[in-house]
Amino acid sequence: MAKTLYRLGRWAFRRRRLVAGVWLGALVLAVAAAALAPAGEEEDLSMPGTESQKAFDLLDERFPESNSQGAEARLVFKAPDGQRVTARENRAVVEHTLDSLDGGAQVASATDPYETGAVSEDGTIAYSTVTYTADAVDLTEATKSALQDTASQARHAGLTVEIGGSALDTEEEPGGTTELIGVVVAAVVLILALGSLVAAGLSLLTAFSGVGIAFGLVSALAVPLGLSSTVAILALMLGLAVGIDYALFITSRFRDERAQGSEPEEAAGRAVGTAGSAVVFAGATVSIALVGLGVVGIPELTKMGMGGAGAVALAVLVALTLVPALFGFFGRRVLPRAVRKASSYRRPGNERPHRVPTAAGRPGLGTRWARFVLRRPVAVLLIAGLGLGAVALPALRLELGLPGDESKSVKTTERRAYDLLSEGFGPGFNGPLTVVVDTSDSADTRATTDQAVKTVRGVDGVASVGDPAFNRAKDTAVFTVVPKTAPDSGETKDLVHSIRGAVSGVEADTGAGILVTGTTAMNIDISEAMSDALIPYLIVVIGLAVLLLMVVFRSILVPVKAALGFLLSVGAAFGVLVAVFQWGWAADLLGIEQTGPVMSLMPIIIIGIVFGLAMDYEVFLVSRMREAYVHGASPGEAIVSGFRHSGRVVAAAAIIMISVFAGFAGMNSPTIQTMGVGLAAAVLFDAFVVRMAIVPAVLALLGHRAWWLPRILNRMLPNVDIEGEALGRHAPVSATVPDAAVRPFAVRRH
Predict the structure, then answer these.
(1) What is the mean pLDDT of residues 354-381?
(2) Angle, nearest 10°, between helix axes 229-259 and 299-330?
């Protein structure tokens, strides 16, 4: 692979105008397609095979005139202080508002709160349920505008009016202040790490090119493929983070090769052949883990994984082609100023530098840290391991759920409607359950349904049970159950299971099928499915990590160590999520207005993404150690060499990723906010605690045993040559570069 990428890097350098033109054209086309495409809409989560989804499917079959998962809005009216919503003038406003809605485009019905009894006991709050003939994703902007205009008219008349339900479902779009701060921090880190504005700008330019294409494609395909804004933001977040990192790694290796005397084209080829090999492997691991999210069975999660994997794949292609092409455009300006001054040139226009002499000065921070770990490996291992274990302890109390209107900002009308309904009718009113009674195999439909209603009313935790409604064939009934507790509470989850257990007796007696569904029940079913899938998915990811790293490092113990370190960093990240989003620690700093269960999709998403990023740092850091070891260095010298060459770059890459992810933590979307905090914490722990402390400590304790591989496995496993050994044998090296400069440990081989 190294030789193929070496030739690709040299070709991109020589054909830089062609390469740059192709990527520029792709960016323009993607942006144009996104600008011309209609905006995508949010979709409700679904999971085929769950009881809730089976009930929705049954309702669509037995009630074809209605849409069981159609859009719904709740217009909540509150009278001014000291007044009742039942007063004549206030009632007239409410009825006029509903009359203007009823019969509108896509409106199926709008209930009258005074006829249905939807007025609070104190008479201050009332609500109307507006149902639509289309799903929320299919509602037109005209329909939504009509709903908002109607509410505005009622507000002008003196009432407080808020809109809940799925009809609006407002989401924050990317591009806010916090994301910009993350990019600025990344730029500062690049400048400090590379010592060159041009080199830093090159990394940012290539990253923005790749993420612009990815974001444009996701936006353009949003409607035909049903991609939500979460998919687009995940592609933006991942593409930006890995795009900067991959460009940084290749640029850093290019500068090393140039400083050692290689000609520009040769240095570009070697940079892509060595660091580019690590980029390909790292990008592949991230993509595989993200695509693997599809095995869970949730369509939205599958789309998120595919969108993220596509963004990462684009970042890899950009790093392997556009980055070396830009080396040709920028020339010596990619090098640090100190290196440019120290380099001597024969005549103007000659791009062949002599090797820059190495000054005998104080070792860098990475070298000093590696030597410190070598002196005290046990102490470093214990402190780092126990520290991560302590941070991971809150993860034992992890509760999963799906955010609803209660988790949105109080600036949104959905959250304010949620609070008004809780105030007037109780917290459970925001999460009603729907019970479907299938009596197609039962002789007496009415009697069976009455028995089911009576049974459900007797379940502890039920606030009220509505009257059943029957379909035209009289073989299916449906009724609503209002819990006493909020939709995201553990008591409501227990209630769903209690109702399902209670009606099983009715099913046995009558032969009917009774299913519990509704948005709340669907969220509970999905959360439980996520919990059940977490351990199997983790096992698959860990197994994949061990196998891939075994191929890369030709070792058994190095992959096992990497996998265990990955578990520690993920566990610590989950501990942070529990502390922040469940317990409310530092919630005010992040603008979190409502604590509750962690979004059920987050653990699997974080595992998939962090797995790939953890392998990034493992490969970029440990591959330089193995490169030194196979060239003759002792285990201790190899560790120091790895930190001397890659420690600073890995640290800079980690800080960049942390700043990008943390920038998304300031968004109002609970999904993106949770993802930003979780990924930022995971990268922090994995890069600076696991890879920078635990990895060298373990390798120091293992010594030569760390690089042992049984002969049978050595013959069976393919050799991917991630260290670029083939380049030393086959690729030409500039005559001005001494062999010792390229292979500093080529004194002897073990």
Answers:
(1) 76
(2) 30
Burial class (CB in 10 A: 0-12, 13-18, 19+), 371: middle
Q: How many CB atoms lie within 10 A of CB 360?
A: 5
Largest CA distance in the chain: 100
What stretches of 352-439 show up as alpha helix (H) in DSSP?
365-375, 377-392, 413-425
Structure tokens at 264: 């520009």
Q: Which two tokens stand for residue 457?
A: 């009313």
Is the pLDDT reported for residue 218 higher than 60? Answer: yes
Facing residues of 128 across strands?
A: 75
SS3 label, residue 483: strand
pTM of the model: 0.76
CA 646 to chain centre: 27
Residue 302: Cβ-neighbour burial (10 angstroms; 0-12, 13-18, 19+): middle
User: Does position 582 have pLDDT exceeding 70, yes or no?
Assistant: yes
Amino acid at 541: V
Look up residue 538 and give its two tokens. Answer: 């983790």
Do residues 160 and 77 touch, judged by C-beta distance below 8 A? yes
Q: Where are the alpha helices (DSSP H) in 15-139?
A: 16-36, 51-62, 88-101, 113-116
221-276 pLDDT tens trace: 876 776 777 788 778 878 887 888 888 888 888 888 887 778 888 888 888 888 88
Tokens found for residue 611: 């797995």
pLDDT (tens digit, 9 = 90+) per residue, 362-371? 677 888 999 9
